[in-house]
Amino acid sequence: MSNPVTKRGAGHRRAALLLVLVITACGHSPDVTLNPQPAPIEYVPVQRPFTGATLAVDADTQGARWQREHRADWLQPITGQPQARWLNSFHDLAGVPDYVASARRQGAVPVLVAYFIPNRGCSRFQEGAPYSDYDRSPPRPDSYAAWISRLVHDLGRIRSVVILEPDAIPADCFDDDRAAAIRAAVGALAAAHHYVYIDAGHPNWIRSGPMAERLIRSGVSDAEGVSLNVSNRYDTPSVARFGEELSDLIGGRDYVVDTGRNGFTDATAEPAAVANDWCNRPDQALGRQAVGSADPDLYPHMAAGIWIKPPGESDGNRAVFPQQDCHGETAPPGLFSPRQAQQLIINDQGQPASVRERVRAIVAPQRR
Amino acid sequence: MTATLDRAFPRLEPQHLGPLRTRMGEPVGSAWRIRWRGVLWLLPVLAVAALVHVWGMANYPRYVDDPGTYLSQAWAVQYEHALSPYTYFYDHAPGGWIQVALWSMATGGFDRYDSAIAFGNECMLLAKLASVALLFWLSRRLGFARPAAAATGLLFAMSPLALTYTRWTFLDNLVTPWILLAFVLAVSRRRAMVGVVGASLAFGMAALTKETSLLLAPAFCWAVVQYTDRRNRPHVLLMSGGLGVLLMSSYVVYALAKGELFEGPGHTSLLGTAKWQLLDRQASGSLLDPTSSTFATVVEWLKIDPYLPLGGLAVVPLLIFVRRLGPPACCVLLEMAVLLKGGYVPAMHVVTFLPWCAVLLVGAVEVLRGNPALQMRPRSGGLHLPSCPSVIRIPAPRTADHDEPTQPTRVVTGGAGRRGQLVRRVVAALVVGAVMVPVVPAWRSSLVTMTTVAEPPELAQATTWVADNVPRSDVVVVHDAIWTDLVHHLGFQKDNVIMAYKLDADPAVHDRLTRLNYLVVPDWYYTAQVGKYPTLIEARDHAVAEARFGTGPDAVTVWRVSRKWTP
Asked: What distance in Å separates residue A325's CA from the closest CA in chain B?
């Protein structure tokens, strides 16, 4: 008789083979066409405009004008140094051509600060605005692009460093509209061959990861880098360490550090202590300016330490900030205060002792 | 002289006695004879089970937390000759992943697939086929008819809930075949010592695979006691119990030999972890409390398939009075007790539940149908069913050459037998039909969804990205599901690939941490409860998102951490 066991055995073998085929076919991972979001970012090469450059001295700062009006030569340690030119309105754009022309005559690179983002400061406080602009309502969003276009036009063919919108990215009110506005501004300025540094706050504000994400949304891939410590007083090594950490996340961008008023703080100071006492603290001191890195081995991406916020301008007074201790200063935010300038020079250990003694003897008037 | 002795002591011919079980009147054949009719019913069930399990198993369900850990431990057993790539802290008995490792050693498992999870899927398929076959066998031994036994296997194979949880590489899926084998060997009419000892050893293996299977010890003991003869029960229980305990104690002896049995400074300990598991672990809350996580877990189970678990529960009161289904019902009740008690209940607990639910459901139908092997107890206080025909078996007379005992003579008594039988069969068929009306469409649509997911899991995509973009000297924090892939296939150093939850939980890892370069974990890790993954969340604050795969809660983002930051 035909062996039923063999027949069933053959059927079983076939079934087993089919099963094995099915298993191997279904267990093997299929080809994956990767569609990762976001698409990989292309960073433009870093151009290093500060390498071997000189910085432009601005003869038309508030301090320089006050010095001329009151024949206050003691202000020379401040007014004789290069400082950035702040642009807070359409009105300020009028002085741009003369400024960049003056810089070119000096053979220096002009440094400008664009400070006109809609809803600047996220509140009524508008840093750096001259007194007369203080109560002006924030500009409309569509006028920002127009303002940037005017700026590009007024800069002309002189390649300039533009610090873009201090405090705009780290602010609480940062959103997609602001990111889009900044991205458009970066694009317009970069297309005109200017060197854009987007402001990225300071080490004690937004941490490097979230800051990198915001910067990428705001077009940092087209920018030269970021600016740090603007109007703040964190010591240069702390800021540089933060800058290096951030730079690694944004395609190796460079960073400039505002050293206008960070001369006094040492690296061991508690960040909170620096953060809390930000309004005209009496022990503030001028910091050192230099193109290039403070330590090229440790901080390879530091482009320069420069004075961005003009030293001597007040941070505020009791009328504007009732909750904050502004150490008796009466000048409103953004107004040049000789008393602040005096403190900065006196506390600057880098100044000759004779200069500090002479400035200490001055009776600096209070401005209101 | 001899003749005188013959008269005084009649010679006892061996064939007059026969085996004990035959003398006790049980008609049985050779233990090793293959019953082809049963196999004929089993094979299609296995084919369906395999097909349903395999189709789409690479893409559904999405990766969860534990399978990768077990597979990494199996990899460590094979390639590092250690119980874990990290410090083994006795969280589970190692039998489960040792079995996976043995299978890999025999077949080159980790080399055959690009991803360890795929190899785990293969192991789960084999476990599923074994479980289905053993369910069939158990059902047959409990007295189910062959179609009913096939239905038990099919219920377990086709339930969407069972499919979801048996596709994941959980230890519970490896326990199920052992537990079923233990019950199969216990529930034997042969009353052979070997069978009971085998059952006990199988139960010991189940306990070594996952120690939580000890929960079913009462039901198992009941099954063993039911099927042992009173006359040699103490002997049988002592022998089998002793051997089972001996097998389970190998785990304790191992810990003792390593000096890690008792708690002490500087090392993990078996008793310490056991204490933590039982006492200190955060309780999930009782099922009776609607705000507990146990309640939420059960709701999730019932969303996938309410019919099998609830059906099994619903028939328990009916079947308590059926003697042979007592142990399966007891299993279900023990599992429920865990849910009600309010200790720590992980989501995979449902796997231990479902085979018994299948047995009970089909058992209920068999009882309705009038299966004579599953009679209600005569003294039941509740239901009265139409009288069934009672069958008396008369053992066949022994013949000299007995290898195939003749069928026993059947004597049927009882008057209303045939008509009652027909009525009961119709009722059973109607009940089955009524149950299938809601169940079949629900299961069909769930199964279609589960077998046709096209998008590969997000972590698998992320692994491919890592293979293309990450330098092999970098330190990568990963979800445990892809740990083995990075180490075995992509050439990363074992110490440079860190499972996310080990960053803070394992002091050895935490202390030697000098840098982190990439984070490849699902997004829901970052929104886990506060304090669970502090280092991971801190690292993300210094990282930028390089690639994101998928959307929703299972999305995976690859974060590149700043090289200038130290953890």
From this structure: 32
ipTM over 0.90: no
What 3-state DSSP class applies to A254? strand
CB proximity B79 to A under 8 Å:
no
Q: Which residues of A touch B464 (CB under 8 A)?
A: 32, 34
Of A8, A32, A210, which is closest to B456 when you measure between CB atoms?
A: A32
B556 bridge partner residues: B522, B549
Spell out the long-range contacts of A211-217 with Cβ–Cβ below 8 A and sequence spacing 24 or more: A211/A169, A211/A170, A211/A246, A212/A246, A212/A249, A212/A250, A212/B544, A213/B544, A213/B545, A214/A169, A214/A170, A214/A174, A214/A179, A215/A169, A215/A250, A216/A41, A216/A250, A216/B544, A217/A176, A217/A179, A217/A183
Residue B486 DSSP code: I
Query: With helix as H, strand as E and coil as C, how does A141-171 read?
Result: HHHHHHHHHHHHHHHCCCCCEEEECCCCCCC
- Cβ of B544 and A22 within 8 Å? no
A213 contacts chain B (CB < 8 A): yes
Q: Could you say which of B57, B464, B562 has the minimum Cβ distance to residue A245? A: B562
Euclidean distance between CA atoms B168 and A264, whole angstroms: 61
CB B477 within 8 A of CB B498: yes
- On whether the CB atoms of residues B284 and B345 are closer than 8 A, the answer is yes
Q: How far apart are alpha carbons B556 and B547 in whole angstroms?
A: 8
The backbone region for A190, taken as left when phi is positive above 0, alpha when psi lies in -120 to 50, beta otherwise, is: alpha
Give the pair of three-digit tokens for residue A39: 């698409």
Residue-level pLDDT, tens digit, chain B, 567 residues:
555 555 666 666 655 556 665 666 655 566 667 788 889 999 999 999 999 999 989 988 889 999 999 999 999 999 999 999 999 989 899 999 999 999 999 999 999 998 999 999 999 999 999 999 999 999 999 999 999 999 999 999 999 999 999 999 999 999 999 999 999 999 987 778 888 999 999 999 999 999 999 999 999 999 999 888 888 889 999 999 999 999 999 999 999 999 989 988 888 889 888 888 888 777 778 888 888 888 989 999 999 999 999 999 999 988 877 888 999 999 999 999 988 887 788 888 899 999 999 999 999 999 988 888 887 665 433 333 334 444 444 455 555 444 454 555 444 444 457 888 889 889 999 999 999 999 999 999 999 999 998 888 899 999 999 999 999 999 999 999 999 999 999 999 999 999 999 998 888 898 889 999 999 999 999 988 888 899 999 999 999 999 999 888 789 999 999 999 998
Q: Using CA atoms, how far apart are residues B123 and A121, in angstroms rounded to an integer? A: 60
User: What amino acid is encoded at A109 in this protein?
Assistant: V
Report d(CA B335, CA A150) in Å as an integer: 76
Q: B541 touching A, CB under 8 A?
A: yes
**Three-class SS state of B241:** helix
Structure tokens belonging to residue B229: 């003869």
As a whole number of angstroms, the distance between CA B41 and CA A34 comes to: 45
Give the phi and the psi of residue B393 in degrees, each rounded to 5.
-100, 130
Cβ–Cβ below 8 Å for B545 and A22 = no
**What's the residue count for chain B?**
567
Locate all alpha helices (DSSP H) within B210-322, ordered by sequence: 217-227, 233-257, 270-275, 293-304, 307-319
Dist CA B549 CA B544 (whole Å):
15
Task: With beta carbons less than 8 A apart as the criterion, state whether A168 and A199 touch.
Answer: yes
Chain A closest CA to B56's CA: distance in Å? 7
Task: Answer for the pair B328, B219: CB distance below 8 angstroms, yes or no.
Answer: yes
Residues 180-199 of A with CB under 8 A from B: none
Helices A338-347 and A353-361, packing angle to 10 deg: 150
Chain B nearest CA to A177, separation (Å)? 21
